[in-house]
Amino acid sequence: MLDFETLEAHAGQLRPMFRQSRPVPYLRLRQLFSTAAFEEICCAASQMDLAMTASSRSLPAVLRELFWELNSGSSMRLLRELTGVGSLIPDPLVVGGGICWRSVGEAEPVVAKTHPKNGLPICLSMHVCLNREWAVESGGGLDFGGGQIELPKPGQALLFLSSSDAIVPQQSVVGEQPLKELKIHYYHRRVVRIGDQSQ
Length: 199
Known about the structure:
The chain contains 4 helices and 9 strands; from the N terminus they run αβαααββββββββ. The protein is of the alpha+beta class. The chain is globular and about 40 Å long.
Protein backbone atom coordinates (compact mmCIF):
# COMPACT_ATOMS: atom_id res chain seq x y z
CA MET A 1 0.00 0.00 0.00
CA LEU A 2 2.80 2.42 0.91
CA ASP A 3 5.26 3.35 -1.84
CA PHE A 4 8.38 2.25 0.06
CA GLU A 5 10.45 1.89 -3.11
CA THR A 6 10.05 5.52 -4.18
CA LEU A 7 10.64 6.89 -0.69
CA GLU A 8 13.72 4.76 -0.12
CA ALA A 9 15.15 5.89 -3.46
CA HIS A 10 14.93 9.53 -2.33
CA ALA A 11 15.87 9.03 1.33
CA GLY A 12 19.41 10.32 0.81
CA GLN A 13 18.06 13.62 -0.53
CA LEU A 14 15.27 13.95 2.01
CA ARG A 15 17.27 13.31 5.18
CA PRO A 16 19.29 16.59 5.07
CA MET A 17 16.05 18.45 4.37
CA PHE A 18 14.49 16.98 7.52
CA ARG A 19 17.44 17.88 9.74
CA GLN A 20 17.69 21.43 8.43
CA SER A 21 13.98 22.33 8.35
CA ARG A 22 12.56 24.74 10.92
CA PRO A 23 10.74 25.67 13.16
CA VAL A 24 11.21 21.93 13.85
CA PRO A 25 12.76 19.21 11.68
CA TYR A 26 10.08 18.03 9.24
CA LEU A 27 9.46 16.51 5.83
CA ARG A 28 6.56 16.73 3.41
CA LEU A 29 6.21 13.29 1.82
CA ARG A 30 4.51 13.75 -1.54
CA GLN A 31 4.60 10.15 -2.79
CA LEU A 32 3.41 8.09 0.14
CA PHE A 33 0.65 6.23 -1.76
CA SER A 34 -0.31 5.37 -5.30
CA THR A 35 -3.42 7.18 -6.59
CA ALA A 36 -5.47 3.97 -6.40
CA ALA A 37 -4.38 3.21 -2.82
CA PHE A 38 -5.18 6.76 -1.66
CA GLU A 39 -8.68 6.59 -3.15
CA GLU A 40 -9.31 3.28 -1.36
CA ILE A 41 -8.10 4.75 1.95
CA CYS A 42 -10.29 7.86 1.58
CA CYS A 43 -13.35 5.73 0.82
CA ALA A 44 -12.75 3.57 3.90
CA ALA A 45 -12.11 6.59 6.15
CA SER A 46 -15.36 8.25 5.07
CA GLN A 47 -17.27 5.19 6.33
CA MET A 48 -15.40 4.94 9.61
CA ASP A 49 -17.09 5.56 12.94
CA LEU A 50 -14.99 7.91 15.10
CA ALA A 51 -15.40 5.47 17.99
CA MET A 52 -13.41 2.84 16.09
CA THR A 53 -9.78 2.23 16.98
CA ALA A 54 -7.07 0.27 15.18
CA SER A 55 -8.05 -2.78 17.24
CA SER A 56 -11.77 -2.56 16.41
CA ARG A 57 -13.07 -5.66 14.66
CA SER A 58 -15.32 -3.48 12.52
CA LEU A 59 -12.44 -1.29 11.29
CA PRO A 60 -12.34 -1.37 7.46
CA ALA A 61 -9.71 -3.87 6.29
CA VAL A 62 -7.88 -1.29 4.19
CA LEU A 63 -7.33 0.93 7.27
CA ARG A 64 -6.22 -2.05 9.35
CA GLU A 65 -3.65 -2.82 6.64
CA LEU A 66 -2.57 0.84 6.52
CA PHE A 67 -2.04 1.01 10.30
CA TRP A 68 -0.03 -2.22 10.16
CA GLU A 69 2.20 -0.97 7.33
CA LEU A 70 2.85 2.38 9.04
CA ASN A 71 4.03 0.50 12.14
CA SER A 72 5.90 -2.31 10.36
CA GLY A 73 9.62 -3.01 10.44
CA SER A 74 9.88 -1.63 6.90
CA SER A 75 8.39 1.68 8.07
CA MET A 76 10.75 1.84 11.05
CA ARG A 77 13.76 1.34 8.75
CA LEU A 78 12.47 3.94 6.31
CA LEU A 79 11.89 6.49 9.08
CA ARG A 80 15.45 6.00 10.28
CA GLU A 81 16.74 6.61 6.75
CA LEU A 82 14.58 9.72 6.37
CA THR A 83 15.25 11.29 9.77
CA GLY A 84 18.38 9.76 11.27
CA VAL A 85 16.38 8.75 14.36
CA GLY A 86 16.92 5.10 15.31
CA SER A 87 15.34 2.78 17.88
CA LEU A 88 11.82 4.07 17.24
CA ILE A 89 8.99 2.28 19.02
CA PRO A 90 5.81 1.82 16.93
CA ASP A 91 2.23 1.99 18.17
CA PRO A 92 0.49 -0.77 16.16
CA LEU A 93 -2.85 -0.25 17.93
CA VAL A 94 -2.65 3.50 17.20
CA VAL A 95 -3.64 4.25 20.78
CA GLY A 96 -2.26 7.78 20.52
CA GLY A 97 -3.48 8.58 17.01
CA GLY A 98 -5.97 7.39 14.39
CA ILE A 99 -8.43 9.00 12.00
CA CYS A 100 -9.39 12.53 13.06
CA TRP A 101 -11.91 15.11 11.87
CA ARG A 102 -11.30 18.76 12.65
CA SER A 103 -14.03 21.35 12.18
CA VAL A 104 -13.65 24.86 10.86
CA GLY A 105 -12.10 27.33 13.29
CA GLU A 106 -10.80 24.70 15.70
CA ALA A 107 -7.30 25.24 17.06
CA GLU A 108 -6.15 22.58 19.47
CA PRO A 109 -2.90 20.91 20.53
CA VAL A 110 -1.99 18.37 17.85
CA VAL A 111 -0.20 15.84 20.02
CA ALA A 112 0.25 14.95 23.63
CA LYS A 113 3.82 14.64 24.86
CA THR A 114 3.69 10.97 25.81
CA HIS A 115 1.93 7.71 24.98
CA PRO A 116 -1.43 7.70 26.82
CA LYS A 117 -0.81 4.25 28.36
CA ASN A 118 2.90 3.50 28.71
CA GLY A 119 4.18 7.07 29.16
CA LEU A 120 6.92 6.84 26.50
CA PRO A 121 7.81 10.20 24.94
CA ILE A 122 6.51 10.87 21.44
CA CYS A 123 9.43 11.31 19.07
CA LEU A 124 8.00 11.58 15.55
CA SER A 125 4.48 12.33 14.33
CA MET A 126 3.00 11.78 10.88
CA HIS A 127 -0.15 13.51 9.62
CA VAL A 128 -1.76 12.32 6.37
CA CYS A 129 -4.46 14.44 4.70
CA LEU A 130 -7.42 12.19 3.80
CA ASN A 131 -9.48 14.84 2.02
CA ARG A 132 -9.82 14.02 -1.68
CA GLU A 133 -9.64 17.77 -2.32
CA TRP A 134 -8.26 20.52 -0.12
CA ALA A 135 -8.84 24.09 -1.30
CA VAL A 136 -6.01 26.58 -0.82
CA GLU A 137 -8.41 28.93 0.97
CA SER A 138 -9.06 26.22 3.56
CA GLY A 139 -5.54 26.99 4.72
CA GLY A 140 -4.53 26.24 8.24
CA GLY A 141 -1.34 24.74 9.53
CA LEU A 142 0.73 23.64 12.48
CA ASP A 143 1.79 26.58 14.61
CA PHE A 144 4.94 25.90 16.64
CA GLY A 145 5.09 29.35 18.18
CA GLY A 146 8.20 30.32 16.26
CA GLY A 147 6.71 29.54 12.87
CA GLN A 148 4.00 27.66 11.01
CA ILE A 149 4.12 24.59 8.78
CA GLU A 150 1.46 24.37 6.08
CA LEU A 151 -0.89 21.39 6.29
CA PRO A 152 -0.19 18.53 3.86
CA LYS A 153 -2.13 18.35 0.60
CA PRO A 154 -4.42 15.36 -0.20
CA GLY A 155 -2.45 12.12 -0.19
CA GLN A 156 0.64 13.80 1.25
CA ALA A 157 2.10 13.21 4.69
CA LEU A 158 3.76 15.64 7.06
CA LEU A 159 6.44 13.96 9.19
CA PHE A 160 7.88 16.05 12.01
CA LEU A 161 9.93 15.80 15.17
CA SER A 162 7.54 16.11 18.11
CA SER A 163 9.88 15.40 21.01
CA SER A 164 8.59 16.56 24.37
CA ASP A 165 11.13 19.39 24.65
CA ALA A 166 9.65 21.06 21.58
CA ILE A 167 6.63 23.35 21.59
CA VAL A 168 3.45 21.31 21.21
CA PRO A 169 1.96 22.64 17.97
CA GLN A 170 -1.51 24.06 17.57
CA GLN A 171 -3.43 23.03 14.45
CA SER A 172 -5.99 25.29 12.83
CA VAL A 173 -8.41 25.05 9.90
CA VAL A 174 -9.51 28.45 8.62
CA GLY A 175 -11.74 27.67 5.62
CA GLU A 176 -15.20 26.16 5.37
CA GLN A 177 -14.02 22.63 4.60
CA PRO A 178 -13.57 20.21 7.54
CA LEU A 179 -10.23 18.43 7.66
CA LYS A 180 -9.94 14.63 7.73
CA GLU A 181 -6.55 13.21 8.55
CA LEU A 182 -4.66 10.19 9.80
CA LYS A 183 -2.29 10.76 12.73
CA ILE A 184 0.43 8.28 13.62
CA HIS A 185 2.96 8.77 16.43
CA TYR A 186 6.28 7.00 16.94
CA TYR A 187 7.91 6.78 20.36
CA HIS A 188 11.38 6.57 21.87
CA ARG A 189 12.82 5.56 25.24
CA ARG A 190 14.39 8.98 25.62
CA VAL A 191 13.58 12.51 24.50
CA VAL A 192 15.17 13.21 21.11
CA ARG A 193 15.93 16.91 21.09
CA ILE A 194 16.03 19.20 18.07
CA GLY A 195 19.49 18.99 16.55
CA ASP A 196 20.62 15.73 18.17
CA GLN A 197 18.94 13.13 15.98
CA SER A 198 20.84 9.92 16.60
CA GLN A 199 22.30 7.76 13.90
